[in-house]
UniProtKB/TrEMBL annotation:
Belongs to the GSP E family. InterPro entries: P-loop_NTPase (IPR027417), T2SS/T4SS_dom (IPR001482), T4SS_GSP_E_ATPase (IPR050921). It comes from the Archaea. Pfam families: T2SSE. Residues 174-287 form the Bacterial type II secretion system protein E domain. It comes from Thermofilum pendens (strain DSM 2475 / Hrk 5). PANTHER family: TWITCHING MOTILITY PROTEIN PILT, TYPE IV PILUS RETRACTATION ATPASE PILT. One of its GO terms (molecular function) is ATP hydrolysis activity. This is Type II secretion system protein E.
Length: 392
């Protein structure tokens, strides 16, 4: 059997073909291999062995065509990738027979994204990847790529009972903020929740407002508004699109006030916000709201549900998911889900009206349970919440 051949640069910066067996160092472990090349790990370092070039990814193709790679950072001379089931591994980017400058040039040509010293940042979608390019003040390039995966079913993202309750809470209606550190799964939770609502209630008109187009849904009735000014985008959506559900892409603290109009109008609204904890999220949002509205302002009057995601990075990989869900009673946050434990059913029901935004509670809940099939006999409940009131 003939081994595939690959190219590498020689001392004269000319490409020459060598066999994989010749290029592979001893004791290296194969991570993945496809038509464009192979990825190996040796001494905790990733080795990139290209077989042939991709029209956009070039000799970096083994990274961007591998199903094992979830994220990639490439700097001048160095790179880091997140490998599924392995974690983050660095690689010497200057050992790849290609340059970051050439890679960025091909991405710009393929996507049309405008990146220059005058406009030093840009985001492009290339196949399954969302690529952020930055030109630093000294002219150095910095590339960050994230694989855009398909939206998973909500019951695969959170426990079935929590999936049922999250949909019920959103269509109560509620303003839902999903918060957590970067890379903790906020967008995944938001996408899965919105997709579930669109699947169950296809007659709802769902408007998506983002600074940059990141969210993508199939099926349902979706309208997208892209605006660098989220407040203007939300105002436009409310005035002209007349949505039944509003999805706002990742917000900064100063953007939160733009959600007040749909909140006051009783439109179910969901967004994401970067914060390391529920307490820090409330502090940041409260401070920003106080600046905009003036005087003492309780953010819990404008926030109904806070979903907290977490992220743990170990040598064996990255784990992420929902760690807590809180309801606001206007004065405090009351947990309905904490680290795998749920609020008692009778207590949770006090937070729901008989008439939801999409119909009778009994009928809607029955439909959700038929799909998610929550096994309450196996669920762990928060007994200590029995004395707390969740009434709206």
């Amino acid at each position: 059997m003939r081994l595939p051949r690959l190219f590498r640069g020689n001392a004269k910066r000319e490409e020459e073909l060598v066999s994989v067996s010749e290029a592979l160092p001893p004791d290296a472990r194969l991570v993945d291999k496809n038509e464009f090349g192979a990825l190996f790990i040796k001494n905790d370092t990733l080795l990139v062995l290209p077989f042939r070039r991709h029209e956009v990814w070039g000799a970096f193709a083994p990274i961007f065509t591998s199903s094992k790679v979830e994220e990639a950072w490439i700097f001048e001379g160095r790179g880091v990738v997140t490998l599924r089931g392995v974690g983050r591994v660095s690689f010497p980017a200057d050992s790849v027979p290609d340059s970051l400058e050439e890679l960025v040039t091909r991405i710009i040509a393929a996507s049309g994204v405008n990146v220059s010293l005058r406009n030093p940042r840009g985001v492009a979608d290339i196949g399954e990847w969302r690529v952020a390019i930055q030109v630093q003040s000294g002219g150095q390039l910095h590339l960050v790529a994230t694989r855009v995966t398909s939206v998973p079913p909500l019951e695969e993202v959170v426990p079935p009972l929590l999936a049922t309750r999250l949909v019920l809470l959103l269509v109560r209606p509620s303003t839902v903020v999903i918060t957590g550190p970067p890379g903790s799964g906020k967008t995944t939770v938001l996408s899965a929740l919105v997709k579930a609502v669109a699947d169950f209630f296809p007659w709802l008109h769902i408007a998506i407002v983002e600074k940059y187009r990141e969210l993508s849904f199939r099926g349902g009735w979706f309208t997208q508004v892209v605006s660098e000014n989220l407040a203007e985008g939300v105002r436009y959506a409310m005035r002209y699109l007349r949505p039944d559900l509003l999805v706002v892409g990742e917000i900064l603290a100063e953007d939160f006030w733009s959600l007040l109009e749909p909140t006051r109008a009783g439109i179910p609204t969901v967004t994401t916000f970067h914060a390391p904890s529920a307490q820090r999220a409330l502090k940041s949002l409260s401070d920003a709201l106080r600046v905009h509205l003036g005087g003492a302002t309780n953010v819990l009057n404008y926030l109904d549900v806070l979903v907290v995601t977490s992220k743990v990075i170990t040598s064996s990989g990255v784990s992420r998911g929902v760690s807590a869900v809180y309801l606001s009673d206007g004065q405090r946050l009351v947990p309905v889900y904490l680290e795998g434990e749920h609020a008692e059913e009778d207590l949770f029901k006090k937070a729901l009206p008989d008439k939801l935004y999409v119909g009778d509670l009994v009928n809607v809940e029955k439909t959700l349970r038929e799909r998610f099939r929550p096994d309450e006999a196996q669920a762990s409940f928060l007994k200590e919440l029995a004395a707390l009131s969740l009434e709206r």
